[in-house]
Design a protein that fits this description.
By secondary structure, this protein is an alpha+beta fold. A four-stranded antiparallel sheet has the order 1-2-3-4, covered by helices on one side. It contains one helix and four strands, in the order ββββα. It has one domain. It is about 15% helix and about 20% strand. The termini are far apart.
Length: about 80
Amino acid sequence: MSYLPAGRAERYSFRHYGPAEGLTNVVVYALLQDTAGYVWAGTPNGLFRYDGSEFRRFDLAPTAEAPRFALWWSWVEERC
């Protein structure tokens, strides 16, 4: 187990994203950052790409052979 001595603790900042930034579902199953710096979020409402200021939704229709989650990751991995 490691620790930081008193006074050397790291601080992290968190920001909450939601509809105001274009993320229409706040339930996120998975996150990935691609080589271009975009952050991808897989949600029940589809795949979202965050460019640093807003989210853009990509609708990938699932099929019996390729459920939604598999489509999200195969689509994103092709672009990473």
